[in-house]
């Protein structure tokens, strides 16, 4: 039902005016724990009217950003992105809907959808891949070998500090 609503919205906006957004990169590859800024570019003539701009950022069924009527609604933001994801509002005036995610987690890997409405509507998909840090993984293995009594707790702690070497999304 949600997908139908998005397509209905986009079809309605398409009839109003042809509108195209672009992305500078379709694939971002980042280290676990680092920061990333992904962006969609949209046409702005003269001065941007924030009240007419709609920006949605989603990953699968997780809502990350909902910017409508000049305001970002944090109530709809998925809990896994709370305090880590934000729309860089100063970039909107440059025609960029930039999503910044701090302290990137392995679970952040996936396909993101950027939907923008501004006199028309369009969307683009961007893929995020996350790599773990090898040094953290080696540290975990060494800790496990040195502490046979606490293996279970060490494995758990290491798994959550630096889960895997690489996350693959198709």
TrEMBL record:
Annotated compartments: Cell membrane
In what residue span(s) does the Ig-like domain sit?
33-127
**A cellular-component GO term for this protein:** external side of plasma membrane
Residues making up the signal peptide according to the UniProt record: 1-18
Ordered alphabetically, the record's keywords are: Cell membrane, Disulfide bond, Glycoprotein, Immunoglobulin domain, Membrane, Receptor, Signal, Transmembrane, Transmembrane helix
Q: What's a GO biological-process term for it?
A: immune response
Among SUPFAM superfamilies, the record links this protein to: Immunoglobulin
Q: According to Swiss-Prot or TrEMBL, what is its membrane topology? A: Single-pass type I membrane protein
Q: What is this protein called?
A: Programmed cell death 1 ligand 1 isoform X5
């Amino acid at each position: 039902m949600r997908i139908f609503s998005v397509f209905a919205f986009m079809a309605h906006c398409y009839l109003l005016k042809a509108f195209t957004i672009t992305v500078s990169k379709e694939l971002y590859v980042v280290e676990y724990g680092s920061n990333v800024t992904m962006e969609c570019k949209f046409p702005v003539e003269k001065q941007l009217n924030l009240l007419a701009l709609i920006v949605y950022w989603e990953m699968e069924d997780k809502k990350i950003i909902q910017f409508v009527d000049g305001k970002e609604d944090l109530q709809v933001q998925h809990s896994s992105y709370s305090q880590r994801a934000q729309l860089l509002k100063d970039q909107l005036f440059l025609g960029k809907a930039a999503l910044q995610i701090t302290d990137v987690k392995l679970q952040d890997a996936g396909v993101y959808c950027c939907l923008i409405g501004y006199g028309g509507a369009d969307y683009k998909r961007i893929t995020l891949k996350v790599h773990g840090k090898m040094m953290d993984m080696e540290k975990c293995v060494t800790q496990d070998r040195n502490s046979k009594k606490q293996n279970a707790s060490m494995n758990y702690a290491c798994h959550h500090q630096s889960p895997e070497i690489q996350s693959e999304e198709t």
